[in-house]
Amino acid sequence: MNPDKTETLRKLLRSARSVCVLTGAGISAESGIPTFRGPGGLWRDFRPEELATPQAFAKDPKTVWEWYDWRRQLIAKAEPNAGHLAVAKFTIVTQNVDGLHQRAGSRNVIEVHGSIWKVRCVQCNAETMDERPSLPELPPRCECGGLLRPGVVWFGEGLSMRVWDNAEKAVCASEILLVVGTSAVVHPAASLAPMAKLSGATVVEINPDETALSDEVDYSIRGTAAQVLPLLLE
Ligand code: OAD
Fold first, then answer.
1. Of 20, 13, 56, 29, which Cα lies nearest the Cα of 209?
2. DSSP 17
3. In order of start, what are the domains of the chain with their CATH numbers?
4. What residue owns the CA closest to ligand 1's atom 29?
5. What pLDDT, in 10s, does the model give residues 12-66?
6. Could you tell me if the CB of 217 is within 6 A of ligand 1?
7. 229 lines ligand 1 (CB under 6 A)
8. 69 with 138: CB under 8 angstroms?
């Protein structure tokens, strides 16, 4: 990492009145949770787009739940890493459903894609938390007899308007937006960074690889979340 750029950013971050952090799967990679589009991201050769849809769930709820059950077990064993800890005092807008920001001490986490620890009945719509890493029966059922589904947003589904509104407000109110570990290809979440920039935020990308966003941001730092974030924020 370029030391001059690091020092400039450290100064900017120290003096900023408001910092917001937009995260994707990459921030949890160093906690041992594979990203969706990187190595180890496929489960039984399925791409996420083949499993994370209402159609896949309607056709084969057991297989979709087996994938979530695998991920719940992985996440339950994982610990927040130095990246999650370094940003814990800021407002977080995350595409992740793993809850690791909260476990790192973050108090203000806007989960635009929901939470893997929530379940919702497809029949009566009741939503509850269920933090057991592995569920005794797949697919699980609600007390009303309906099928329970993971409380996450799937491809082809709309985001909660209330949550989206909060996410837009948070990124647009920030003086600096740190964009960490997202390929920025899944919409509408991918539009949050350009929106923040239009509102006048300085946008800083932290990612070991170039992304769809790299050309649009003010600073692009090539490195991993757990290495770069503590350096910028300590
Ligand atoms: P992706 O898997 O698409 O992208 C992960 C990004 O993290 C890539 O750009 C990697 O280069 C980067 N990365 C990998 N290791 C990293 C590290 N140690 N530190 C920092 N960055 C690292 O994940 P998302 O962009 O989060 O949606 O994917 C967006 C959405 O697609 C997810 O929320 C999920 C998925 O399908 C739904 O389930 C609706």
1. 29
2. S
3. 1-32+80-113+159-234 (3.40.50.1220), 34-77+115-152 (3.30.1600.10)
4. 186
5. 999 999 999 999 999 999 999 999 888 776 777 788 888 999 999 999 999 999 9
6. no
7. no
8. yes
